[in-house]
Amino acid sequence: MAQLDVREKLAILADAAKYDASCASSGTTRRSSAGGKGLGSTEGMGICHAYAPDGRCISLLKILLTNSCVFDCHYCINRKSSNVRRARFTAEEVVQLTLSFYRRNYIEGLFLSSGIIRSSNYTMEQIVEVARSLREDHDFRGYIHLKTIPDADPELVHQAGLHADRVSINVELPTTQGLTRLAPEKSAVRIEGAMGDMRGAIDDLSDAKKRYKSAPRFAPAGQSTQMIVGADAATDGDIVRRASTLYDRFRLRRVYYSAFSPIPHPSAVLPLQRPPLMREHRLYQSDWLMRFYDYRPDEVVAAADDATGMLPLDIDPKLAWALKFRDRFPVDVNRAPREMLLRVPGLGVKAVNSIVTARRWRQLRLSDISRLTVSVAKVRPFLIAVDWRPTLLTDRADLRSLVTPRSEQLELFAA
């Protein structure tokens, strides 16, 4: 490998990290260096932006330790047989980059992943050393997210959890068949075993923290994972079911979806074109329905096309479900239970909470609902208010065309 300076390595390894979507920084505990103790808190090139639950934008240095890899996964640009320029940071270089970027107010934390060099254990040792040095040698109190390696020794993965705010282990592909075909060196059993071990450690140390103040923090922001969408034959229904299983079994904070992107010198087994980015977006909306709108996985899957198993791209899954099950509508905003109001297209969680609170004191009109939603036209066919009843509107054959958002060409220089 040619000798590169740190700036050249940063350009290569920051670009190589762009394929990893799971770098949100929500859910961690608060730490502060106020009072002159420690460096950083949890409150450009290689910098990504994530958002905390309260809406704050958090900047993270997002890089790979190296883009060299002993594995040959067909879908990965950094695979062993790929003809890309290689680079590798030392652990100390990553530590100094993180500290330098923080002192310049560029970042508030680090997202670190890596290709596999030498062995899984060796690579995991280097990743852990970065986090250990930041925490123990430099008293760094900012956010750290580490990508862990399922094949590594469980003790090394445990050490990662002791130093990081969040850890993630990628399941890579939605189905075992897809993983076997496109990443034969990886094992779904080992991946899920590592995720199960991490869940157990998080639960154990969380319980210990409640009983003993001296118990160490362990991945307070939990664990997450990522699935590649469109590299194999998995349908949206397959992906939704897989995500639901992962949430239930491993109590993940997030499942991220990354649309497959064609890479230079691709393998012959890969599709020639990337899936529509809108497909990725619809999967995130489906994920939201399960996590915040109390939809069961089978309900979300029911919104997909029966023949293809794919969610519609022109409308969101919530609207698709409502159009498919019109017998559930319209619902009375003044009497319907909260769980049914959450299924009305155009009403979000905040709007539904406002409706439930307001109707304790008075009967709601359509004008009241219009102030809680962006598009009252989308809402009207599905609800009843004091002064509004959709009569035959809900049963119209052309209802979908009436409620589908119209595409508009944006102007480049519009005021």
Outline the structure in words.
- This protein has 415 residues and is an alpha/beta fold.
- The strands form 2 sheets. The protein has a 7-stranded mixed sheet. Strands 8-9 form a two-stranded parallel ribbon.
- It is globular, with a radius of gyration of 24 Å.
- The protein contains 15 helices and 9 strands.
- It has 2 domains: 6-275, Alpha-Beta Barrel (TIM Barrel); 325-403, no CATH class.
- The relative contact order is 0.08.
Overall number of strands? 9
The largest beta-sheet arranges its strands as 1-2-3-4-5-6-7
What do we call the CATH homologous superfamily of the largest domain? Aldolase class I
Number of helices: 15
Query: Can you summarize the main beta sheet?
Result: 7 strands, mixed
In percent, how helical is the residue content? 25-40%
Straight-line distance between termini: 50 Å
Beta-strand content estimate = 5-15%
Class of the largest domain in CATH?
Alpha Beta
Give helix and strand order, one letter per element, not per position: HEEHEHEHEHHEHEHHHEHHHHEH
CATH architecture call of the largest domain? Alpha-Beta Barrel
Shape: globular
Keywords: Iron, Iron-sulfur, Metal-binding, S-adenosyl-L-methionine
Cofactor: [4Fe-4S] cluster
InterPro entries: Aldolase_TIM, DNA_rSAM_put, Elp3/MiaA/NifB-like_rSAM, Endo/Exo/Phosphatase_dom_1, rSAM, rSAM_sf, RuvA_2-like
Organism: Stakelama marina
